[in-house]
Design brief:
about 220 residues, mainly alpha, 10 helices
């Protein structure tokens, strides 16, 4: 009996692996160059597939970019929504949510640069794209996070903050660190993405948010796990 020939990654015989490789390469390419400067041949080369196979799965660069956005935001939603739907008390739930959000970005530090590139794009088509992203991914998180904040305010655990102002500020303190990592490295002469720096930043973010939100922030130190 003949031994079956292994299917190459660059063929149609391993669609899941091939598409995953293309997405991984595309995330890096879009983070580095934005959609305008990204090149499909560079994506194909990094994914170790030929361009014909790339276009077999994705009709054009815009389709790859949309798949990248869906991958990034669906991963975030699937990470944090179960936390927000859990049965923890508001204080612990909020800290667990922040930690999960931070860990997701820390594990994928180029994601913020991909997302930033999307924010600055303009035009009617892009507005429609962002409406889709907001409905599918942001709205479920925003609604549940708002519920947690309202519950914490009602029980006296949280200060009576404006959720519409607090939520984007809370996200920004996580995201900015990673999007600004190249600048931080230049200014401070340290690697902001080194494991020890990431751990320091995570602890700082939790302390900062607890100080801004909790009525007794020092009590949050025991909840930082």
């Amino acid at each position: 009996m003949k031994t079956p020939r292994p299917v190459r990654l660059g063929s149609r015989g391993k669609p899941e692996q091939s598409q995953a490789a293309i997405l991984k390469a595309a995330i890096n390419e879009f983070a580095e160059h934005g959609i305008a400067g990204a090149r499909t041949d560079a994506i194909a080369r990094a994914a170790r597939v030929n361009k014909a196979l790339l276009y077999y799965y994705f009709k054009d660069k815009e389709a790859i970019y949309q798949a990248v956005l869906d991958h990034v935001f669906s991963g975030l939603r699937d990470t944090v929504v179960p936390v927000l739907e859990g049965n923890l008390p508001p204080r612990r739930k909020l800290l667990t949510y922040v930690g999960a959000y931070f860990d997701y970005i820390a594990a994928n530090p180029c994601f913020p640069r991909v997302v930033q590139g999307e924010w600055i794009r303009t035009g009617t088509d892009r507005v429609g794209q962002m409406k889709r992203v907001a409905r599918s991914y942001f709205q479920p998180i925003y609604q549940r996070l708002g519920e947690v904040l309202r519950e914490g305010i009602a029980t006296g655990e949280f200060r009576p903050i404006d959720a519409a102002q607090f939520i984007p500020s809370m996200v920004a303190i996580i995201i900015f660190y990673f999007s600004a990592a190249p600048i931080i490295k230049t200014l401070m002469k340290v690697d902001p993405l080194a494991p020890e720096r990431i751990a320091e930043r995570r602890a700082f973010v939790l302390d900062f948010i607890s100080a801004a939100l909790f009525t007794h922030p020092l009590q949050a130190r025991g909840d930082r796990s």
